[in-house]
Design a protein that fits this description.
The chain is an alpha/beta fold. It folds into 2 domains: about 80 residues, no CATH class; about 70 residues, no CATH class. It is built from 5 helices and 9 strands; from the N terminus they run H-E-E-E-E-H-E-H-E-H-E-H-E-E. The strands form 3 sheets. The protein has a 4-stranded mixed sheet with strand order 1-7-8-9. Helix 2 runs parallel beside helix 3 and helix 4 packs parallel to helix 5.
Length: about 180
């Protein structure tokens, strides 16, 4: 019987799976739309939302913030409304004691920030003059921004960068 040889292993290719940089934790979207006051301009007319400072401060004061304990939170407002910056800042002052991490934006923004933080901890020097495959398939939600950020980090160090799987890669960069 012939011995099975792992050609990928012998090729010196280094595979990077972005799932390894995924930060575990429950994600939560905190949409302040529900805490705005709705104004209607007559029957069948447009509706507008405003933030009333007194009401909003009362919400922040009485809200059960413990439900955000150790969660990864994205703070946003999906209503078409002008929200004063201090409103988001006020929420941040309270979330600081509860959330594992919070950002301004939607859940996609949260994932981008989480991956940027995680990737910033890697040592790109260990990939100097290496042939790299950035794995394409993942079971966890990996945003495109993470692939771009990883590529940005690796280009100055890598000999070559490919995307995909060892059996089928797309070449992205190769130094001569």
């Amino acid at each position: 019987m012939d011995e099975i040889i792992n050609k990928v292993e012998k090729s010196g290719l280094k595979e990077i799976n972005l799932e390894d940089f995924y930060i575990q934790g429950e994600r939560y979207l905190l949409d302040i739309k529900q805490y705005l006051t709705s104004l209607s301009f007559g029957e069948g007319k447009e509706e507008a939302f405003i933030l009333k400072e007194k009401d909003f401060r009362e919400y922040v004061k009485t809200h059960d913030w413990t439900k955000y304990k150790d969660k990864l939170v994205a703070i946003t407002c999906t209503a078409d409304a002008v929200i004063p910056t201090w409103a988001y800042m006020l929420i941040a002052t309270v979330l600081q004691s509860y959330a594992k991490k919070f950002v301004f934006g939607d859940l996609k923004t949260l994932e981008t920030v989480l991956f940027q933080e995680s990737l910033s901890k890697m040592n790109p020097e260990e990939f100097r003059d290496k042939k790299i495959i950035i794995r394409g398939c993942s079971n966890l939600p990996v945003p495109e921004s993470a692939y771009v950020e990883l590529t940005r980090i690796l280009v100055p160090f890598a000999k070559s960068i490919m995307y995909g799987e060892a059996c089928s890669t797309v070449p992205l960069m190769k130094k001569m």
